[in-house]
Specification:
two-stranded antiparallel ribbon, about 0% strand
Length: about 190
Amino acid sequence: MTLIGVSCRTQEIYMIVFVARYLDLFWLYVSFYNTIMKIFFLVATGWLVYTMRYRPPVCTTYDRNADNFQYEKYLILPCVLLALISTQEYSLSEILWTMSIWLEAVAIFPQLVLLQQLREVENLTSHFVFAMGAYRFFYILNWIYRYFVEGYVNWVGWLGGIIQTGLYVDFFYYYAMSKWYGQRLVLPTVA
């Protein structure tokens, strides 16, 4: 089995998101479930990044040369600046949480850039990216529910979610068309 086109850089960004968001494990206890899930996300994502970066491929073909998006200057720096501008309170935990929201919104960008370079996307990879975007749909349902039931509004989270969903729209279109016609997902060339 080959899994071509999964971006380690996207997974690294998610690791940064989870570290920034879950640092509160050291001072805030919500529940046993919450603690276990945060630890699971950190360990699983860390293991995935480690495996992709440092372990020789066993059943996957990760192309390190193609996965070369420079997220450090194009995504992390702008997200830190946005966090400083849009945070509700100037505490380290709140700034990191806000930065994690902005960074999560654009974390899929290196993955989409890699797929655009490859053009022809493996089925397993296309399903993986679709699932990554589909979970945002459930977040949107959660926002709608919480707004009407609790009156809860989180502008940073909502705007980040809208940006993230917007990044997926083009991919979703081509994914749906490939499934509709029973073909492999082939992305158009960029002019």
